[in-house]
Amino acid sequence: MIHLFKKGEDASAPTLVLFHGTGGTEQDLLPLAELISPGSSVLSVRGNVLENGMPRFFRRLAEGVFDEVDLVERTKELKDFLDDCVEKYQLDKNNLVAVGYSNGANIIGSLLFHYENVFRAAILHHPMVPLRNKELPNMSRLAVFIGAGANDPICSPQETDELKILLASAGAQVEVHWEQRGHQLTMTEAEAAAEWFQNIK
Q1: Measuring CA to CA, how many Å separate 71 from each of 16, 60, 92, 129, 200?
Q2: For this structure, is 20 an active site residue?
Q3: What is the DSSP secondary structure assignment for residue 158, as one 8-state letter?
Q4: CA–CA separation, 129 and 98 (whole Å)
Q5: Which of 28, 110, 114, 152 is the catalytic position?
Q6: What is the largest CA-CA distance in the chain?
Q7: Separation between Cα atoms, residue 100 and residue 103, nearest integer Å
Q8: Catalytic residue among 40, 41, 44, 102
Q9: Within 13 A of 186's CA, how many CA atoms are on the CB side?
Q10: What's the Cα-to-Cα distance from 196 to each of 75, 193, 200, rounded to whole Å?
Q11: What pTM did the predictor assign?
Q12: What is the mean pLDDT of each run of 10 residues along the chain (201 residues)?
């Protein structure tokens, strides 16, 4: 998969694994990673699916309607890729923190729904519920930050609340930060994620 890896100055800091939104690239969230943890190594991935030329991490049938078969296949593809990267770049597999926006946050959610301890923490900006009616793995070691918009037309507040309940019911410690905005990722939301990260290090 197309990706970039930047080795950080702080070997003890978590490696941030970045997942862009629809139409983005592996470059998009680098400023966010710098804000969250300047000393961290960064692994940033580009989605393998193209929608009208725009990279995504899995196909969708319509706005907000996921192609669940493709989502499951792409989730396994990414898990295998992450396992390869842990070996290739000699990463601590127990010290990976996922950061994603929109479509990227949704593929992180799917990874969390399918695999136990794939990340020690996750920062999800405007995520949806990736799958329903699925038995979730034990998440008792997982901390999750959710950034949400009270007026988000793509990810409703009810969807955010449902995702929080699902993650918490599996044992995750979940914090939701609300913005009185829409689907965009704002600086105040990014700063809230950075502050949350400092508290869970």
Answers
A1: 22, 9, 26, 12, 29
A2: no
A3: H
A4: 16
A5: 152
A6: 42
A7: 8
A8: 102
A9: 15
A10: 26, 5, 7
A11: 0.97
A12: 97 96 97 97 97 96 93 98 98 97 98 97 98 96 98 96 98 98 96 96 70
